[in-house]
Each structure stands twice: as C-alpha cells, then as structure tokens.
Amino acid sequence: MKENFPRALALVLKHEGGYSNHPKDPGGATMKGVIQRVYDGYRQRKGLERRSVKRLESQELQDIYRQLYWNKIEGDELPAGLDYCVFDAAVNSGPGQAAKWLQRALNKVDGAKLVDDGVIGPATLAAADIAPFDAVADVMCGLRLAMLRRLKTWPTFGRGWQGRVDGVRAAAMNWK
Q1: How much helix, strand and coil, in percent to the nearest 5, is found in the chain?
Q2: Mean pLDDT taken over the chain
Q3: Among 161, 163, 167, which residue's Cα sits nearest to residue 148?
C-alpha cells in the first residue's frame, strides 16, 4: 500500500491557509480547510465538547482529513497523482462530488461504463488502475472547474479556485 497522504495533505493545506470566516463563504468559519460544522461533528463523535474551529489541533486536523476525505475517496488505492487530484476535489467539494468527477472522467477518457454514483468502489478503482492517469486528472480538473464556474460565489472566489485547480492539475500530472 502506498502512503501519499502526508504529501497530498501538505499540498491541500497550502491552498487552505489558516483561519477565515468570509461573509460570502457558505461554509462559514473555517480553519485550515475544516469548517465549523465538520469540526463539531468530529468532536461529537469523539465524545468531546464543541469548541471553536480556531482551536483545531494538529492531530485533529490529520484525523479529519484522513477519515472524512482521504479514506472516503480510497486515496491509498488510487494511482499516485490521481489520488491527490481526487483528494483535493473532495476537500473542496465533498468526497461524493469528487468521486463523481473521477467516474465521469474515467468514462470520458477510457470508455469505462461507470455509474457516477459518488462512491469509489472496486469498478472505479479497476478503471483508474488501467486508465492514463494524466488524461483522467486533466479531464477531472476540467469538470471540477466547469462546476465551480457555475457557482454564484465564482465572482468572489473564482480567481483562487482557478489557481487551485490549475495547481492541482500540474501537481497530479508531475507526481513522482
């Protein structure tokens, strides 16, 4: 089993920054990409009291990203580079949406006949293993960007999203 999680997380965190609570961000208060609602749920499942996401600890950050994003997209099972591409999309738009973009990209690039159900299972992993991952990453980033451009918050956050997706595309294709 490969272990690209630490490297992929470091790249994601470069895009996420520190604390923010932009009035036009529907996610609300966010620390290093973790929104308050996600942090509350994580702490509740651990039997811990709620507290501000500003107090997010390093181990909590690692756990949240691994459990709620990396593991949900089967990061350890995806081809290197493509794992980061799907992971970043999951962090930004949710694991289900990221899986759908992957499935649609695999269908388009490799003629796979996957149902875009938002779950990365054996059929999606098998298709990802044989598809040219750089072409899949390119198409997936294109699908992601097309959806982001349709959001009403594009005028506010579009420049950052464009840069992020372009950076993800480049990093995924040059992953070594």
Answers
A1: 65, 5, 30
A2: 95
A3: 161
The answer, yes or no, to whether residue 1 has pLDDT greater than 50, is no
DSSP-based three-state secondary structure for 174 = coil
More confident of the two residues 27 and 82 = 82
Q: Are 68 and 38 in contact (CB under 8 A)?
A: yes
Chain-centre distance of CA 136, in angstroms?
A: 15
CA distance 174 to 141: 14
Answer whether 0.70 is exceeded by the pTM.
yes
**Nearest Cα to Cα of residue 20 among 42, 51, 53, 43:** 53
Burial of 55 per CB tally in 10 Å (0-12, 13-18, 19+): exposed
**Per residue in 125-164, pLDDT tens?**
999 999 998 999 999 999 999 999 999 999 999 999 999 9
> What DSSP designation does 73 have?
T
Q: Exposed/middle/buried for 69, CB within 10 Å: 0-12, 13-18, 19+? A: buried
**Structure tokens that stand for 107 in this block:** 């269908």
Among all chains, which residue has been given the structure tokens 């949900």? 72
